[in-house]
Amino acid sequence: MTSPPSAPGNVAPNPGAIERAPAAEVAPTPLDAIAGMLARARAAQTLWSDLPLYERVSAISKVRRNALADAMGVAQLLRQETGKPIEEALTAEVLAIADLLDYWVASIEAQLEPTDVLPDPMFFPSKRGRVERAPRGVIAVITPWNFPLAIPLRTIVPALMAGNAVIFKPSEHAPHVGALIASWFEPVLPPGLLQVVQGGAEAASRIIEGGVDAVCFTGGAESGRKVAVACAQRLVPCSLELGGKDAAIVLADARLERTARGIAWGAFNNSGQNCASIERVYVDKRIADAFLARLVAVTSQLRPGVDFGTMTTRAQFEAARAKLDEALAQGGQLLVGGSPTGESLSFPPTIVRAPNDTCSLMTEETFGPVLSVVLVDSVQQAISSVNSSRFGLTASIWSKSVGKAQRLARQLRTGVVTINNHGFTAALAMAPWSGTKDSGYGVTNGPLALDFLTRPFFVLADKSTSSRELWWHPYTPTLRSAGVALAKARGGAGFFGRIAAILALILLLPKRMLADR
Q1: Whole-prediction pTM value?
Q2: Most buried residue among 168, 344, 451, 452 by CB atoms closer than 10 A?
Q3: Could you give all domains of the chain from N- to C-terminal order, each with its CATH number?
């Protein structure tokens, strides 16, 4: 194939990039204060869960005005702490608050509605059960710095509405956003119901050790394993979202303009610091020249400080650069962008023809603005390559034939598949967000999230006036005969055998229920 138009080679930091002013430091929460915070949370939760659901929902719905009244100010804070463009802060985080609250305010009452259970009247007469959802209690919400507003809120809001208390530990790299979230809820919630613990990994460990009832963790796979072990030792349920190595599959009939623009956004929004960022593209060889030419052109037009910001942390910047440099050293072909130099955290959007399938750029999460491209002979080759990853968060398929893409989607071992789009469904409050393999387990968003935020609570009411049940003591020959007859009546015999068993039960049950002499 011919090389697409590009300007390969190492590049200096983008001169137009807007560097962030350092934010004021936030003091970490003293570790010995966490036990007291947990105690206050448990006391507040007991009173909160006793309130009628409509009162809890009404209180939390008031957060909308607090959160959206100064949308630009919130976006600027996000820009300062994370480096993302104002437009991304507004669309991906601030505006999503309205949809999140709309969904849960409108739907949680129906989702928490008790359901009836009606046992078999032959064997369990006069009995009726009901399944209710009880709050877990105190839930720890531990979140990262890449989406410090959107990620915690999608758990905090339904957790509180369902009757829980929340201990929230934001990333130590976005402490001001974490404090801002708490300030929105403070005027509408009882004291102690939502509390913020500032700090790093040691603070997170102290929260889990302190006796929470569930842990919702978003972060890296290595940290997630430690959380899972700590929770398992305490028999505490946890929900883990641990990153990804998301791929896009470009079929021969894809709409090139939309596909190029969509994949560029999916790869480079938030400077690639997104668990759902596209990090691998598998493109049909038949359209590779035209597609890559357009993808490189679109990427080259992205403006530093406007369309992409700086990376958030020096450690992540260096990790992404190291993977890129390794791939180039192994023979990868640089199509646009390159390895930055200097002290800036501005990393240009970069596209590379992958040198092989084993370099870290193809196997490990990059979490930076570097996109690998692989040419394939068939869609099945692409699907096999996507599924070979140890991660399985999301993937996308790009094709004019939506029906075909939907059939192919079922072959992908990921939690989410989008067709002709990518990565944005985490902002859909009604759609489950989940992963497989090293991307973790558990669900945030949508009705299935309540399976983690609540526990089933079953109540059975028995209105029988009989003095005994069929299966109570004493065990007698009549009980044995009735048990055998019930087995036949419930499927252990043919049609006439079941009829005979039912007639036998009619004769046996009164004897068993009244007396066994």
Answers
A1: 0.92
A2: 168
A3: 54-111+137-236 (3.40.605.10), 246-426 (3.40.309.10), 468-514 (no CATH)
